[in-house]
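Hey, can you fold this?
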Amino acid sequence: MLEDLTPTPAPTSWPTAYPQGYAVVDVETTGLSREDRIISAAVYRLDARGEVEDHWYTTVNPERDPGPVWIHGLTSDVLEGAPLFVDIAEEFASRLDGRVLVAHNAVFDWSMIAREYARAEREAPVRQRLCTIALSKELGLPLSNHKLETLAAHYGVVQQRAHHALDDARVLAEAFRPSLHAAALGGVRLPLLECRPLTEWSASPATSGSALPQIGRQASGGYGSYQPAGWRPSRKRPACPYPNPGRYEDGKPLKQGMRVAFSGDTSVERDLLEDRAVEAGLHVATSLSRLTSLLVTNDPDSMTSKVVRARQYGTPVVDEAAFGQLLRDVEPAARG
């Protein structure tokens, strides 16, 4: 594991375009799917130059079994007396308000937070996020992998309780500060992505109109026995009326009929993002082939089957934020 104890020199001037404050966040959850719940959350508030202002931590009753206790250590007994998310939503929001959300693999933390606020019929006051994995890549840090512990070791930060939200947030805050200073010193543009609140959460038929199962009391008693909630019922999309004009070319607009595939988590719920693509005249593909015009993913270094095939076929890849910009000006299909 690489380690670098040399402090990053403070830049003599600070980029005026950089944010005025950050909220370094870590959440522990019952699992990794969109139906899973937050069971603990921590926030370190930092000023414009990454100095700690304060920190906050809470456990959360997920109203279901706590999932992989062997990872996060939070049992049903511990969580039974914890507040519900709706009870801490206001305090959590006050910690995020007006700041850039910073997290390690930020698309996951943001997605979990956004879904909890949607369930509570509220919106998280966050408009941008910054992933420290993406920032370390922008800085070209010599890391053997992109785990939090590896980033922490690079800056000499000691982890005390891995997978405890408060300690993970502390470690990330301490590692983010020198990363931020290195970016400012090198004139690096921060890899900020848009956070679009989710607003269409609805309970599934299995849970609509009835109370959610009590924590630790599911009929089957096992992890994953919770009846999930969802966004909208799955539906077959109509065929795209336009012919495929070929692959997307960097610097040029999308064209109606282009085949677009998605891979991995997105800050905008996948169904909604796909709807926007269909409304713009694009063909949403469920798999990736040599005919795919573009792959949209926030994690181009992952080893999902779509990303692997995109590499093999040379399919262009953009992240969600870039795709959102492209959707604003889709070129009409050529008239036959």
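Oh, and this one too while you're at it.
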Amino acid sequence: MQEEVQRLLEELRHAVTRPWAVMEVCGGQTHAIASLGLEELLPPALRLIHGPGCPVCVTAVELIDQAVELSLRPGVALCSYGDMMRVPGSGGDLFSAKARGGDVRLMYSPLEAVALAGSHPELEVVFFAVGFETTAPATALAMQQARALGYANFSVLCAHVQVPPALEWLMDQDEGRPDAFLAPGHVCAITGEGDYGRLSTRYRVPMAVTGFEAPDLLRGILMCVRQLEAGEYTVQNAYARYVKPEGNKTARERMEEVFEPEDRHWRGLGLIPSGGMKVRRAWEDMDAALRFRCRKGAHGADEASGCLAGQVLRGLIRPGECPFFGTSCTPLAPLGAPMVSGEGACAAYYRYKRS
């Protein structure tokens, strides 16, 4: 692997003849880049921009507030992934709700929540479903399984979001638009390359589907640079061992049976047309927001006053450029979501680049 990395870096040094900015969309890629120190190895004219590819980070405050509210209701068990525990809402997070007596349970899979509903019929089990298209099929499977087993006490608070509409939103902005994109390999493994190809053609921007290891990332960056230097734009696949052009048909069909697109507020970005997923009408009996008549909240205050998480998520600044980074904003006392998520750019910089 080391020899391949050195070869790819040498090819990049020869390929780059002018300044270029490439955005990696996936937060997992951001963490990989930071942990491997790849940015420091790239040619000086080549700049990486960290994008909004952290589904926890962009989950709307309104949904966090609804999850907190549900966890505090008698007889309700609110289940979700560990990343969600410290993401601040307008009145606290799930961790503090648990300290106040809320029934908050950390789980690694929505199927664990289905099992809980089956073993505890006296509980209303709500799974707070967060993630891109990668995790949505698992949520859909959990809902299908719960219905098949007759578990009427299982429901989902849906916070799933879709990546292509967010990229379209970013490319429509006047400020901070990158020259090329590293498309998220784990998402494309489900959805395929189709939507990214359409965006590449529409906006005349190169894209490369890539993974998380150093050779994968460097290969994707090199694909983007070669297109930029040649004045070309298309989608190339640097992660072909996992990503097929058509994606995973079974997973996609499962997801599309249960969910449909809806306009969604992305924390730090704003309202993104078709940026979210909602439960289809045929499955509304398992929509926790409807079942429990959750209150609608305002979208105005995404983060604590002064927090620059929105600019970080858009790639306009790096985490270390925020005046609160590492001082009044830390993983144990976060002002914004990117500091506490396992895929957040601020958390990556705090762990790997704080010196």
